[in-house]
Amino acid sequence: MLKRYLALFKALNAARVKYLVIGGLAAIAYGIPRSTKDADLIHLKRAAGRKGDWDDVALLEKIRAGSI
Q: What are 9-48's pLDDT values in tens digits?
């Protein structure tokens, strides 16, 4: 199950996007059996109003659209 998301995580890591895997996928990674088929991610902010926040959002949109 986790292998499905490997390309997404690699793209996020390569772009230095700070994120946290949450929800069912996190439970599966922890070893709790789940039947979820989606990935819930949350963007981590080092500081509120950080200059790169909007750049990170734009990058996530490009990744979601498949252009990266």
A: 899 899 888 887 878 888 877 787 878 777 777 777 654 5
Which of 57, 31, 59, 35 lies closest to 45, judged by CA? 57
Rounded Cα distance between 64 and 33, Å, is 27
In our burial notation (b when 16+ CB lie closer than 10 A, e otherwise), range 40-64 reads ebeeeeeeeeeeeeeebeebbeebe
Domain ranges of the chain: 1-45
